[in-house]
Amino acid sequence: MPGSGxxxxxxxxxxxxxxxxxxxxxxxxxxxxxxxxxxxxEVLKDSSASCTVLTSAWGPxxxxxxxxxxxxxxxxxxxxxxxxxxxxxxxVPLFLxxxxxxxxxxxxxxxxxDLDPTSTITTLEKLAGFEIGREKRVKR
Length: 140
Fold this sequence. Notes:
The protein has helices at 4-33, 37-45, 52-64, 73-90, 95-109, 121-128. It is mainly alpha-helical. It has one domain (4-128): N-(1-d-carboxylethyl)-l-norvaline Dehydrogenase, domain 2 (Orthogonal Bundle).
């Protein structure tokens, strides 16, 4: 069992990594409807959805299509796995955390382990049958 400092880090990463996935879904939903990605980003940034993940990591990477890592997906999977394990040990059900872990596991199986977790948006694009317009594409 990790110490309190490690547990805080794992809990913080669980929130951050979960937020990336829900931001991906929001962008995919809006873009598929026809809302321009830049407009949707600005609304999210200036609304109750605004957060550090959106403005400092997710937004700049997704809008540019730059999935070079700030934090590797392999490490994301490890950290979310640690959170789920802690939940099991402490008998705290982590329903969403478990789903996040499964999604990141699938993404690593697809060979994205050395990319940024924001790269998971490309799977949503494939499943939805469209690509969100970006300035460029990097390391898909």
